[in-house]
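Please go through the protein record below and see whether the fold suits the sequence. Record follows.
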Amino acid sequence: MSATLINTLLEKTANFSIEETLAFLANEYKDKVVFSSSFGQEDQVITALIAKSNLPITIFTLDTGRLFQETYDVFHKTIKKYKKEIKVCFPEATAVENLLQTKGPNSFYESVENRKECCFIRKVAPLTKALKGNEIWITGLRAEQSENRNDLDLFEYDAHFDIIKFNPLLKWTLEEVQKYIDDNNVPQNALHKQGFVSIGCAPCTRANTPGEDIRAGRWWWESSHKECGLHQK
């Protein structure tokens, strides 16, 4: 069923621009289309596109409680500029309290298992709740962000969350993303100008050095696949 539906979506939107595809989805799946933003460059482009056409797409963000102040700054600038509500999803307080009481505030540095536990509590569980009952999940994923995202498709079924994902910027380069931001005066995180390419929680993100992989600044002390569980590929 999901494969047939994805093929249908690909056929119907084959000659559409991103804006036209977003409008089509918003109309086809009324009140069932959501966009998750972490206020990174890609997400800011998509927010601008949604706001430009005033599309009825719910934008939400996951506030893990460990974000950079610069992330909150661009969050604030975004809602001021586009006058569009952004829903905020928090982790369950009891789960965070138990984690810190039993393992301390920096347990994620001690093992991949601990880090994934923290990511699950602060990100995956709130995302699961935010996606529930919806049919289309728009993301800012790009193929060149990491090796395990090279085989992503424009539309794909996410079995873990039981939802169809739309990755509108899949084939965009970072240069194309930055050009759109510059040309359209889109608010962006000040950390991008300081060498931060992929920005997550403050204790788990550092600036990249020249020549490093795009995801190198995330969980830099690990040799894992550099994913937190939000995206299974």
In short: Residues 108 and 133 are 31 Å apart (CA to CA).
